[in-house]
What does this fold into?
Amino acid sequence: MLFDAGFTSLLEPGGSTAIRLSSGGTALDYGLTTTAVQVDSNLSAVPLTPDERVQSAYVAFYERPADCPGFRYWAGQLAAGKLSDIIQAFGTSAEFDERYGGLTDTQLVDNVYEQMFNRLPDPAGRAFYIRMLQSGQMTLQTITINVLDGALNTNRTIIENKIEVARHFTGELCASGLAYTDLDEAIAIISGVDPTAESIEQAKTDSGTLIESYLQ
It folds into this structure.
């Protein structure tokens, strides 16, 4: 039974239960009384091309499309590494400190879900990730990857739609030879994307309008 992005509830044989979390090849087990939860960041519910993977990192962590230099750099890095390397770097960036440095653990976890899925996590998911974050057994970066890779159904549609818009925005931006002048406006475009095709078209229109304004 899926009860949130990144969580799968499993009842083990004989009634014994545990949480099993696999991240970066390290398995962690936690005793429970009723269920077992397995999260494997090596198995993505959202199959993505390399450029989509880079955009997914920007959308998930910063809620914005990639800028041209960042996209080109991280696409090259991804060819020789993995998404967790990108997310790890994002978590120590000046942009991260400026936007998220003053947030509580609860606000950080909530923000991951809001940026990707336009909603808050359910109570069980929030409590689990806050516990992992506060215990040091997960970082915000690994939480972000697990939530992203666990996206299913409507959540999956939303993140795929946001990635599509982000690719369009970055492509138009790179073709123009321009750079961001206001991150907040690009963030607003991505945050307005939902499961509908109409939201994609509106976001692409808004992207073109914003990029044209950079020429003025």
Notes: The chain is about 60% helix and 10% strand. Residues 9-40 form one domain. The beta strands are 9-10, 18-23, 26-31, 36-40.
